[in-house]
Specification:
Length: about 400
C-alpha cells in the first residue's frame, strides 16, 4: 500500500427534504450567487421552485444561468464567468448533475483568472484561486458533487479535457434521492456505468496489500449492479435510489483510491468519443471499458479473476485464470446490455470511420501515453477502439 493523504472537505447533506437547507448553506458564503442549471427538467419537476424558495427565505439573490448541456460546453462557461464579473458574484450554486457541476467548477476558476479558463483544461496549470461552489444533485453518475475534477468540452475541435484541484471540491452537496425518480431509464443506466467506471479506474492496480480498498470497491460495484435493474423497474423506490446516489459519491470522492496507483486510461479514451460525437459519457464508458479490459487483462490475470469472482460470483478456474478473467469481462458487458446501454461502437447511431478512430487515438495521446495499469500509446489506444467496434 502506498502512502496517502485523504482529505475531502465537501459537506454531504443527504436525504428527503434536504433541498430546504439550500438557502441556509449558501447564506454562509454569500447573499448574491450565480445559479447554474441545465434544461427545463428542474422546473418541470418542481426542483427549481424548491431551491429558489429556500434561497429567497435565506435572503440570497440568485442570478440564473441555464442551458448546460451534456458534455458541457466552454462557451457557456465563458458566459458564466462574464456574468459573475459584471454582477460581482462570489459564489456559484450548481443545481443538476455532473455537467452542471463541472460547468460551475469551471466558472469558479475562470472568474479570478486573467486568462482564458480553457488554459486549465488544455495545460497542466495549477489552480491558484476559485470561487466557492455548492451543489444540489439531481443525477447520480459523475460524482462531481464532492470530487476535485471538472471536465469541459471545447466546441472547436471537439476537445473534451479535464482540470483538477482540491479547490474544486464543492463546499456542500445536497442530495435528495427523490430528485432521481423522474430520470429517463437511459440516464439512470448511463449513470450506473459512469459510477462503475470510476470504481474500476481505481480497482485495477498492481499495488499489493490493498485488499481493504479492493473490498470497498467490490461492495460499491455490487451495490450498483444489484440496484440499477430495480431502479429501472421501480423508479420511485427510495431505498434503491438512495443507495445508487450514495454509491455515486463514494465512487469518486477519492476514498476508494487511497493507497493505490489508479489507472485512468478508459476515461480519456472515452472523452475523445463523447467529445467528437456528443454521446452520453456513461454510455461511452460502457463501450470502452470492456474493450480496455480485453486489451490489458493478461497483465494481471489474478486481479481480473478476482474481479470475476468477487463482483460477478464466477467460480475461479485455477487451471485457467484467463478463462475466469474473460468471464468477468463478458459479465460486465452483459450487465450493460441488460440495462439498455450500447457495448459496441456499432451500437451507436453514428458512423465512425477508421480515420475517425485514428484521429481520436492521436488526440487522446497527444500529451503522451495514458493509463497506469498499462501505459498506452497511440497504437494501443487505436487497438482498443478497434476492439470496441
Amino acid at each position: 500500500m502506498q502512502n496517502f493523504t485523504f482529505h475531502n472537505r465537501t459537506k454531504i447533506i443527504f436525504g428527503r427534504g434536504t433541498e430546504e437547507k439550500t438557502g441556509e448553506e449558501v447564506a454562509k458564503y454569500s447573499d448574491k450567487i450565480l445559479m447554474v442549471y441545465g434544461g427545463g427538467s428542474i422546473k418541470e419537476y418542481g426542483i427549481y421552485e424548491k431551491v429558489m424558495s429556500s434561497l429567497e427565505a435565506a435572503g440570497v439573490e440568485a442570478v440564473e444561468l441555464g442551458g448546460v448541456k451534456p458534455n458541457p460546453r466552454l462557451k457557456l462557461v465563458h458566459e458564466g464567468v462574464e456574468i459573475c464579473r459584471e454582477e460581482n458574484i462570489d459564489f456559484v450554486l450548481a443545481v443538476g448533475g455532473g455537467s452542471v457541476i463541472d460547468t460551475a467548477k469551471a466558472i469558479s476558476i475562470g472568474v479570478p483568472y486573467e486568462g482564458d479558463v480553457w488554459d486549465f483544461y488544455a495545460e497542466d496549470r495549477t489552480i491558484e484561486e476559485s470561487l466557492p461552489i455548492g451543489t444540489v444533485l439531481t443525477i447520480p453518475a459523475a460524482g462531481s458533487e464532492s470530487s476535485p475534477g471538472s471536465v469541459i468540452t471545447k466546441e472547436e475541435g471537439g476537445l473534451k479535457r479535464d482540470a483538477g484541484s482540491n479547490k474544486l471540491r464543492p463546499e456542500f452537496a445536497i442530495m435528495n434521492p427523490e430528485f432521481t425518480y423522474t430520470l429517463p431509464d437511459y440516464q439512470t443506466a448511463s449513470g450506473a456505468a459512469d459510477i462503475m467506471a470510476h470504481v474500476m479506474e481505481r480497482y485495477f492496480t498492481h499495488e499489493p496489500h490493498v485488499d481493504f480498498t479492493d473490498r470497498l470497491c467490490e461492495a460499491t460495484l455490487r451495490t450498483v449492479i444489484e440496484n440499477t435493474p430495480i431502479a429501472l423497474e421501480e423508479p420511485e423506490n427510495y431505498g434503491v435510489r438512495a443507495q445508487i446516489m450514495w454509491a455515486s459519491t463514494v465512487a469518486h470522492n477519492d476514498l476508494l483510491g487511497t493507497g493505490r496507483v489508479e489507472d485512468w486510461a478508459s476515461h480519456p479514451i472515452e472523452h475523445e468519443l463523447s467529445g467528437m460525437y456528443d454521446i452520453t459519457h456513461g454510455a461511452g464508458l460502457a463501450i470502452i471499458f470492456p474493450a480496455w479490459m480485453e486489451y490489458v487483462h493478461q497483465k494481471n490475470l489474478e486481479k481480473f479473476a478476482q474481479f470475476a469472482a468477487r463482483v460477478w460470483n464466477e467460480e475461479v478456474d485455477f487451471a485457467s485464470l484467463e478463462r475466469t478473467a474473460l468471464k468477468g469481462i463478458e459479465d460486465l458487458r452483459e450487465f450493460f446490455r441488460r440495462v439498455g446501454l450500447p457495448t459496441r461502437l456499432s451500437d451507436l447511431e453514428v458512423e465512425i470511420s477508421e480515420a475517425d478512430l485514428e484521429e481520436m487515438a492521436d488526440k487522446c495521446t497527444e500529451n503522451g501515453p495514458v493509463g497506469n495499469f498499462v501505459e498506452l500509446d497511440r497504437d494501443d489506444v487505436l487497438e482498443i477502439y478497434n476492439l470496441a467496434r
